[in-house]
Design a protein that fits this description.
This protein is of the alpha/beta class. It has two domains: 3-190 and 377-407, Alpha-Beta Complex (Quinone Oxidoreductase, Chain A, domain 1), CATH 3.90.180.10; 202-350, 3-Layer(aba) Sandwich (Rossmann fold). It has helices at residues 3-17, 80-88, 140-144, 193-197, 199-213, 232-243, 256-265, 279-289, 305-311, 337-342, 358-371, 389-397, and strands at 42-50, 53-60, 69-77, 96-97, 101-109, 127-133, 156-157, 176-179, 183-187, 224-228, 248-253, 269-272, 295-300, 315-323, 347-350, 380-385, 403-407. Strands 3, 5, 6, 7, 8, 9, 16 and 17 form an eight-stranded mixed β-sheet that branches. A six-stranded parallel β-sheet has the order 12-11-10-13-14-15, sandwiched between helices.
């Protein structure tokens, strides 16, 4: 055993005895580096230890295995799912390191790792993104329909994994991430860090668009489409529709600032629901913009059950709706099966996360959006260093700005 490995083992043992906590309480020191190596001995993470309680902790960073990759995290966006986890831990994963909209620099490559999930070589210094892990071999959904692996009950996503005794680096809200062998990961050296942070949420909207196109409702250049809800996912939904050639997009939200950004992303018309005396008046405004017929299709991205119910009144006969916004249980709503579905022959489609192969699609969408002048990186309105992650979450909770990003200045 060489001196560097001896140092690593000693540090591992000492930190393990003190529970992985830094001696400075909630604020940990910078990660130590082994002499003569770029490999850190320890790393900081931000753990959700209980609802509404984040703590910065420092843990030993074990030697990676031959089939793993060590990533130095550069940045990660805060997702609505992170906010749900912060508020109530609905998935029961605490303690856990959150953060799945992330990217970083490859620091170490295991000896058995040769290429990423599309065959690109993986080398130290590469910029990389990852999110989804493989499901278990026991999952019958993935076994008989690999294109539906996103529906497996044991779907795993970095940033939504419980803490493990031998690996505390499972999410992007930290200094380092260990990529496991069963993961999908992609080298994206030709993208800015801001674009890379948008790849994961873009995979969500790319998946939703594919779900809609495969629903049996004809979506083409002349289709009149509603995007209801102009948070980060809704605004990316507008951008992916415009990038795909949809020329008639109506964005609906209650925030005038977000509606203005929706126009930047490609919306042709915007409706602020506060300006109308209820869903019937709002549906009337949609009717006025759609030759009196209603929209052909609607993407519901609010996460509000009553908004989903109201959207049916804005869709024409023979149209469709894709529900994108409910990634946690937001409650129930009432619809009229006769008027809302049967009489109109409305096609209702759900969209759940994405599949591993949709990351490359999201990558190309973002590149195309920039080439045609859609300023997608304008969605990132706030940036905070890791030490100020509580402020970042507070800004997001107050719904200030659009996409809040957490950075590692030392990356």
């Amino acid at each position: 055993m060489d001196n560097n490995e001896s140092i690593r083992r000693i540090v591992d043992e000492v930190l393990a005895k003190v529970g992985g906590r830094s001696s400075g309480g909630g604020r940990a020191s910078s990660s130590a580096l082994a002499a003569g190596r770029n490999t850190p001995l320890t790393g900081r993470v931000v753990q959700l230890v209980a609802p509404e309680k984040l703590e910065i902790r420092e843990y030993p960073l074990r030697t990676i295995r031959p089939d793993e990759i060590l990533v130095k995290v550069e940045a990660c966006g805060i997702c609505g799912t992170d906010i749900h986890c912060y508020r109530s831990d609905p998935f029961g994963i605490a303690p856990a390191v959150l953060g799945h909209e992330g990217t970083g620099v490859v620091l170490e490559v295991g000896s058995a790792v040769k290429a990423d999930s599309v065959g690109k070589p993986v080398r130290v210094g590469d910029r990389i993104v990852t999110s989804v892990l493989d499901t278990s071999e026991a999952c019958m959904i993935a076994k008989y329909n690999p294109l539906k692996a996103n529906l497996c009950d044991d779907l795993k996503v970095y940033g939504l994994l419980p803490d493990e005794p031998n690996n505390h680096f499972n999410g992007y809200f930290g200094e380092y991430l260990i990529i496991r062998p069963e993961s999908s990961y992609f080298v994206v050296n030709d993208m800015s860090v801001d674009l890379r942070v948008l790849i994961e949420p873009s995979a969500v909207v790319c998946h939703a668009l594919e779900r809609a196109k495969n629903s049996g409702v004809n979506i083409n250049f002349r289709t009149r489409v509603i995007v209801q809800g102009c948070g980060p996912i809704g605004l990316l939904m507008v951008a992916v529709l415009k990038t795909s050639g949809i020329n008639n997009i109506i964005a609906i939200d209650g925030n005038s600032g977000r509606l203005e950004i929706a126009r930047q992303m490609g919306a042709d018309d915007t409706l602020n629901y506060h300006a109308y005396g209820g869903i019937d008046e709002l549906a009337g405004a949609v009717s006025d913009l759609t030759k009196g017929l209603g929209a052909h299709y609607g993407f519901q991205v609010t996460g509000v059950p009553s908004a989903f119910a109201g959207l049916f009144k804005c869709i024409r006969r023979g149209g469709g709706i894709c529900e994108v916004g409910h990634f946690v249980d937001g409650g129930e709503c009432g619809i009229n099966p006769h008027h809302d579905i049967c009489r109109k022959e409305i096609t209702v489609t759900g969209s759940w996360v994405y599949n591993r192969f949709e990351y490359p699609n999201a990558y190309h969408f973002l590149q195309r959006a920039e080439r045609i002048g859609i300023p997608v990186t304008n969605l990132i309105t706030h940036k905070f260093p890791l030490d100020r992650i509580q402020e970042a979450f507070d800004v997001n909770l107050r719904q200030e700005g659009i996409k809040v990003m957490v950075e590692n200045p030392r990356a």
